[in-house]
Design a protein that fits this description.
By secondary structure, the protein is of the alpha+beta class. The protein has one domain. About 20% of the residues lie in helices and about 40% in strands.
């Protein structure tokens, strides 16, 4: 009887922990769409991966070196790999015309202060990009995003890429805020 009670208590603790993890879910790619007329907000999450070129960028920045690639702009894509990978480059995606957006002022940074960013942290590098209502519209559904240099084309390297959990569009009444969070795990 005592063994069954310990097992039941163990399962209860596990379920509570799982519930708390779900309730405090963090995201490494987060889109906040806001309808400026109604104030209604929609959150969409994505899973992002830092590419090999992105890892080189972070290593060079950590050593105070000038990075080989000057990653600075977000690109929205209407198609891309089923699973983003470390060898992705600009040509891996179908980029939405006019979607290149420079990073927000003060980014990238650690321990982001923007309350919308649920993936921030002391060991997390956050990139933020903001599209106003006048940007776009992007009426063909956006499925992927990635960070590359301004004016990227062809097989240019990218910092990271992600696939959104659901496709989305942005009309002229909607603004968008996109966070790309990269956790520094060390090894």
């Amino acid at each position: 009887m005592q063994k069954k009670l310990r097992t039941l208590i163990g399962y209860t603790i596990l379920l509570v922990a799982l519930f708390k993890m779900k309730a405090t879910r963090t995201h490494d790619a987060l889109l906040v769409l806001t309808n400026n007329a109604s104030g209604q907000r929609k959150l969409i999450w994505g899973k992002n991966i830092v590419t090999t070129a992105g890892n080189v960028y972070y290593a060079q920045k950590a050593c105070g070196e000038t990075p080989t690639n000057n990653f600075a702009n977000l690109y929205l894509a209407t198609a891309g790999p089923a699973t983003p990978g470390v060898n992705d480059n600009y040509s891996s995606f179908t980029v939405a015309a006019g979607s290149s957006k420079a990073k927000s002022s003060g980014y990238p940074k650690t321990n982001d202060t923007d309350a919308d960013n649920t993936g921030k942290g002391i060991n997390v590098v956050t990139w933020k990009f903001e599209y106003t209502a006048s940007d776009g519209p992007f009426s063909t559904p956006i499925t992927h995003s990635f960070i590359a240099r301004s004016g990227a084309t062809g097989s240019d390297p990218i910092l990271n890429s992600y696939k959104w959990t659901t496709s989305w569009v942005k009309d002229s009444d909607t603004s968008a805020k996109i966070f790309s969070n990269h956790t520094m795990l060390g090894s």
